[in-house]
Write a structure and sequence with these properties.
With 105 residues, the protein is α+β, with helices and mostly antiparallel strands. The protein is built from 3 helices and 7 strands; from the N terminus they run H-E-E-H-H-E-E-E-E-E. The chain has one domain. It is 33% helix and 33% strand. It has a 7-stranded antiparallel sheet, with helices on one face.
Length: 105
Amino acid sequence: MRNLIICSLIALLVLAVAPSVADAATLKKGAIACVTEKLFDQITSLISQNDRRGAEYLLGKGCIIVNADYEASILKRGFTTTLVRAYLADGSAVELWTYTEAVVK
């Protein structure tokens, strides 16, 4: 019985964290986002160390501060980071890594 309860809790957690394929969402203005997970990890590390010069260097070199709310599809949602496809006004799209909190359904 205990194993059944544990398995059920794990299944609920997985369902809560893992989105269905390409969930519709909004990438919020002011969020930091990067084209690769590695760059996103670097810039968040620099920000947490108060390394303004290092963080500013990465802006425009694969990382951005989102300048407006954008419609997005969630491609991969993690506990702290999320990969989205953001749809731009000109009809194009870009895949970006960002904070999970910056993406709302």
